Amino acid sequence: xxxxxxxxxxxxxxxxxxxxxxxxxxxxxxxxxxxxxxxxxxxxxxxxxxxxxxxxxxxxxxxxxxxxxxxxxxxxxxxxxxxxxxxxxxxxxxxxxxxxxxxxxxxxxxxxxxxxxxxxxxxxxxxxxxxxxxxxxxxxxxxxxxxxxxxxxxxxxxxxxxxxxxx
Length: 167
Hints:
The chain is mainly beta. It contains two helices and twelve strands, in the order ββββββββαβββαβ. A hairpin with a 5-residue loop joins β10 and β11 (134-136). It is globular. The two termini are 18 Å apart.
């Protein structure tokens, strides 16, 4: 489903930590703690550079990352362009930022892919609010919603209700 202004341009709404663009969320996020832990090195940023350009950048790595790769895309619709650039890690266990929508979600809303490189490899990802530990459904083989209600974060023991879906 696409949302357009009267002039036929995509709707851009300010939301906490970022923007909702044509119904898709791009959000900034970082750890925010006062120590220097592994999660402090990962983040996402979204900025409106001009009325016609929104940029999303993310670093999903930490000092222990061994399997690094880059991916991203640029999409356009009307006079608006969204540019996404991600430094990712296949071996990541924690992440403090947010993950942008896959390029196919933009295409479903009628956006044109102007450029694309690499592919996001994680499927649906949930994050523990306390430890920033990631539950990756594809890697675990079980949908998060199907986990028992008494399931807890293996890193810090937070309850299932303390997780948020970030992709």
